[in-house]
Amino acid sequence: MSKETTLSSEMLYDGRIMKLYKDSVELENGKTSEREYIRHSGGASIMAVDEEENVYFVTQYRYPYAAEVFEIPAGKLEKGEEPLTCAIRELEEEAGLKADKFELIATVYPTPSYTDEKLYVYLATGLTETEAHLDEGEFLGVEKIPFEKAYSMAVAGDIHDAKTLVAIYAYAARKARGELR
């Protein structure tokens, strides 16, 4: 197994949601190189599926893409927060839902080349509607669509968000193995 040894580390930026570093590393062949990377607290995302096998999605404008993105509810982990606690909070905040059951179905490294971010993907079932309460400056639309349509959208390339694709495909694999419904 290859490994790199950190020789020095410099924080270039300390932001609200991320920290940017530039490190000098020694490679396994003894040469040195530089690594620029982002430290991120990670997040939790939730594929909420109701009794009729409808899935709840949110749409929100994502500034880096200059577009509205179709995705499952998700949020950033607060310092020291457990992923499940974040998932429970974000499902209610963004989609106005509570769930009787949460099951971790995947852990995703969204961009391992330049960040240490981990996304925890949960399946939420036994849903009850409550009231959404969005964060300041957060504007979302909530959509409920049948799973089969969501799966078709994923296969057709109409869904671009990585955590949402992972959730859809993980759910489909479980269905195919007879683990669900």
Automatic annotation (TrEMBL):
Pfam families referenced in this protein's UniProt entry, alphabetically: NUDIX (PF00293)
Protein keywords: Hydrolase
Matching InterPro entries: NUDIX_hydrolase-like_dom_sf, NUDIX_hydrolase_CS, NUDIX_hydrolase_dom
Domain of life: Bacteria
Metal-binding as UniProt keyword: no
Gene3D superfamilies linked to this entry: Nucleoside Triphosphate Pyrophosphohydrolase
PROSITE patterns linked to this entry: NUDIX, NUDIX_BOX
Cofactor(s) the protein needs: Mg(2+)
Residues annotated as domain Nudix hydrolase: 39-167
GO molecular function, one term: hydrolase activity
SUPFAM superfamilies for the chain: Nudix
GO BP: nucleoside phosphate metabolic process; ribose phosphate metabolic process
Identification of the protein by name: NUDIX hydrolase
Organism of derivation: Candidatus Stercoripulliclostridium pullicola
Native organism taxonomy: Bacteria, Bacillati, Bacillota, Clostridia, Eubacteriales
